[in-house]
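// run 5 | inverse folding | seed 20
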């Protein structure tokens, strides 16, 4: 009997190992496929800019294609100087592809950002004289999601000429990570005030992953609804006016695991901390959810429809700006979510028990 049991256990272990190896192989293939898809999109953009098809881009071609890149002629010229690494007056495909590690020039929605910053500036300019004083910036610190001390540091950073005032031109030069964008002023789209389901165009929903036993913040997963169509606890979110995505079940806010600029950063939930930039998001007119920390957008892992797919932040692709996996919609839900049908880690049960009472 012992031998039989040993044999059965051995077979089970071997089967588990095989499944793990298969899963790892699938993930490696998916990463390769994603990289190839991104490179294909970048090559397509290069071909669109290369009017004469000679395999290199000139300054004139970059300027002519400035609109496709979402920039003005002056920015296009600056971009050409950046891309032309060998200084021969031409940009070949390899130079163009090498720029993908610094993709901000391809994906920055400059008009939207400047419009949002300009609106913030005029709200802070209490006397309407066209400049901000230190007192005005400190008074409006809460609107920016900053402490008075942080507002003071921001003022010193932006007051380049040291005259004790910040004009609009200086304010527009503020980096995005210096203050959170207002999610309700992105294009003509407003997010719902109450808790809602956050649905990907792939038909899955953001959810808390209570199964995890990892230390630190609770990971966020992309999951399907309960079999009868009712969301489980952890699937409802609310975007606040200051840009925090709050989970109904726990009250914790969604954030990037760290503020590194490495790609495919994981997303998790942490306790609310006003000083953490990675907890701030912006919902755009393109139905993307953009991080206030680095401008990356939420993506379903590999665009997969499988249950409990991971969610991470990723760059926007240059063609059409976004992928299907990066498009999200707030879906109002007023019913009573269910307790999760999947196992809940012991250390996380208290969070759910509290949520059941709210």
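// decoded
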């Amino acid at each position: 009997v012992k031998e039989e049991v040993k044999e059965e256990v051995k077979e089970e272990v071997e089967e588990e190992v095989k499944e793990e190896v298969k899963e790892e192989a699938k993930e490696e293939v998916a990463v390769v496929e994603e990289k190839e898809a991104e490179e294909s999109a970048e090559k397509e953009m290069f071909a669109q800019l290369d009017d004469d098809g000679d395999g290199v881009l000139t300054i004139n071609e970059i300027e002519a294609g400035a609109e496709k890149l979402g920039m003005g002629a002056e920015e296009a010229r600056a971009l050409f100087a950046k891309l032309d690494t060998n200084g021969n007056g031409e940009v070949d495909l390899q130079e163009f592809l090498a720029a993908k590690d610094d993709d901000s020039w391809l994906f920055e929605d400059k008009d939207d950002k400047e419009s949002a910053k300009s609106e913030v500036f005029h709200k802070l300019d209490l006397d309407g004289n066209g400049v901000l004083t230190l007192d005005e910036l400190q008074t409006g610190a809460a609107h920016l999601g900053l402490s008075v001390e942080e507002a003071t540091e921001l003022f010193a950073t932006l007051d380049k000429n040291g005259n004790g005032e910040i004009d609009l031109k200086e304010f527009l030069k503020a980096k995005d990570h210096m203050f959170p964008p207002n999610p309700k002023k992105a294009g003509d789209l407003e997010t719902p005030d109450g808790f809602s389901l956050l649905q990907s165009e792939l038909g899955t929903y953001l959810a808390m992953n209570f199964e995890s036993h990892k230390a630190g913040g609770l990971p966020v997963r992309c999951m399907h609804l309960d079999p009868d169509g009712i969301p489980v606890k952890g699937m409802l979110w609310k975007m606040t006016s200051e840009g925090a995505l709050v989970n109904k079940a726990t009250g914790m806010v969604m954030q990037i695991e760290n503020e590194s600029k490495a790609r495919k950063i994981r997303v998790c939930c942490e306790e609310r901390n006003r000083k953490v930039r990675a907890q701030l998001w912006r919902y755009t007119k393109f139905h993307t959810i953009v991080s206030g920390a680095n401008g990356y957008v939420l993506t379903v892992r590999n665009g997969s429809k499988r249950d409990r797919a991971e969610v991470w932040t990723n760059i926007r692709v240059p063609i059409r700006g976004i992928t299907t996996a990066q498009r999200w919609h707030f879906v109002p839900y007023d019913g009573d979510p269910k307790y999760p049908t999947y196992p809940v880690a012991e250390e996380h049960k208290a969070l759910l028990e509290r949520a059941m009472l709210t």
